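Researcher: Before we compare anything, I want clean individual predictions. No alignment, no superposition, just each chain on its own. First chain goes here; please echo the sequence and then give the structure tokens.
Model: Echoing the first chain and its structure:
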Amino acid sequence: MNLWTLQNEGINTVQQQAVDGFNDAGGPQITLTTYLNDPYKSALQTAVGSPNSPDIFYNWGGGNLRGYVEAGQVTDLTGALDARPEIKDRFLPQVLNGGTIDGKVYGIPMQGVQPLSMFYNKEVFAKAGIAEFPTTWQGFLDTVDKLKAAGVQPIALAGAQSWTEMMYPEMLLDRVGGTETFQAIADGEPGAWRDPAVVRAMTMVQDLVDHGAFGTNYAAVDYDNQASQALLTSGRAGMELMGSWQVTSLNDNFPDFLDAGKLGWAPFPAVEGGKGDPRNVVGNPSNFYSVSRSSADAPAATDFLLTRMTSPEYVQGMIDKGQVPGLTGLDQQVKQGRFADFNTFTYEQTKNAPTFTQSWDQALPAAEAQTMLTNLAKVFNKELTPQQFVEAMDTASR
């Protein structure tokens, strides 16, 4: 059997150990193959459904997985999970939901949860007279003003990639309109993009731009070369909205900043008068492994996913790498190790969230997602008004 996944040296080590343990038990053998992100997406689109399809393949769930499901290329894992309730019940429902399409499970969470959080420079906040991270939107705007008054760019934004810009409207829409607003969009309901909450969220984004919250050069700042992280860690910016991978990335690229205890983190603030529960999280519930429907060893591949992705060795290996699996019963495990404080925050935030909304670029069909990212960049650059964005996306979703 062939297992295709993304290249990530630390995580690949844990994955290979899981494969080796499965292979040592006899039966069909698994070969692990890793790819860089963009080559992987191209290879997978060509391979799945063909004689060269991998038996097990990495995916992002949501709209990314739906395309393969609707093409009849993925194995339905619902029955296998229902037959093993002791395994099914280990997954946090709001995480397993990311691999669930039309009520059926096609993807098993295989990596850590990745909710969005606000990361901030404690030293910068202290110098600006900010005692703690704000919990309300008005408090957030006041914090922006205090940072500007202190001569600091309030928010680091890698605007050269519009997926980083996407994080603000998707968080704001959840706080303003509630989870149901985007769910209607993801479900393709006619007119869903025209919900007034979408216009309000986009207006709030442009208010931040007009207020100078992101500085003036954000469209040229690149995330891949750690430029936004450099702004945060150097004290030239006060905060950044990013996924939970931020901590391990900072540990790789700016370890002295972490060692000095300067990094703080907090949930995205609540919006006064909004319908959304401030406990809700947005981001990537996890990444997933799915079984190709054309696999000659689908039962063995399914058994690998059910037994190895929840094994004590795999779970501990992920935690040691700064990943928090979307499983129940990890309250004590996440409190240990180098990333204990942040892992505990991430785990409790996810576990206590009523809903975990998947990032728009993964939840939407690929073509609609790309149009959304293109139009979103225009909103940030003031080339589209919020109403024009809504109209453009309503047209694209038809």
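Researcher: Okay. Second chain, same rules.
Model: Second chain and its structure:
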Amino acid sequence: MKSLLSLLILCLIVSAFVYAQETSGGKFSGLVFGDYFYKTGGDAQPFGSASQYSQPMAKDFQAFQLRRIYFIYDHTISQKFSAQFLIEGNDKALDPGGRHGVFIKTAFLEWKGIFSGSNLAIGLVPTPTWSWGVAEKIWNYRSLEKTIADFRGFGSASDIGIALRGKIDGDGMLSYIAMIGNGTGQKPENDRYKKYYGELNFKPVKELTVEAYADYEPVLNDKNVTTMKGVAAYQIPQGTLGVEVAQQIRVKDYANGSDRQPLGISAYVWASVPGVEKLNAVARYDFFNPDTKISTAGFTEQFFLIGLDYMPENNIHVMPNLWLNSFSDKSSAGVAKDSDIAFRLTFFYVYR
């Protein structure tokens, strides 16, 4: 409770500081998104997925929720140095009393142009897994759902460490991010091992983006985790068509010492509705196999999302949508599991 109170007091202090510093290099911004949802399918069962509408949430459950609140302060210290401090609140970060809490998401210093075309950041830094990579930006609808690598727990949005990012060529056709971090996300380190990240982003033409990503993390007892991810997207002002594929190799992940290899594939499209101002349509399909090495047990999952995005003003979004996660038994027994289905009215706004 004391830690939460300290963070809230810090938030107020930073707010006052930001207000005083607006004319001297400081910038305050943030965002909020949440929903009213009604779960129409999928009773709580002893075997489920990690999705937000799975167990123990039963059919006919309904609620208003805040899924994310950001408070961001960006400060330009000089032409060479800048810093960011970001506090997040969400429906999973709860205090001991079960109320919405907050935690520090990023806190880093960036040295711009440490050498030609590259910047160096140190602290609690956004990772290239999706935050500083292109995946979340291209998908564009984090307010509706995470990217597949995030959704299926393939990494963390930020990590304590050091990152180098920049352009490989002068035109920015090829850029990169290289990072070394603790591998514990926003938590302090708990062992001597480190996590190694690498990302390459290629834009052969203005409308096409291709990303290749990998990370590697050794852990105790000769275990290790390797993540490989690729993103390809065609983007125009009227919309985006994209694909993301993510694979992990988790060595000695099971108690018997065998490996686990989850795989996720996501395809999505969003576009402005012809003849209707301030309205986009969004659709997405994901396939997820928790372990491709096991073909006779467990379930594969198929995720579907369709919705509309109405923008009455810039940075304000009202989005009715259908969220559905279905299950297919990999065994010959044909075990049935109800789909988790939720109808939602999502709201999202940005303030800056």
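Researcher: What stands out in the second chain?
Model: Residues 31 and 261 are 35 Å apart (CA to CA). Additionally, The chain has one domain: 30-351.
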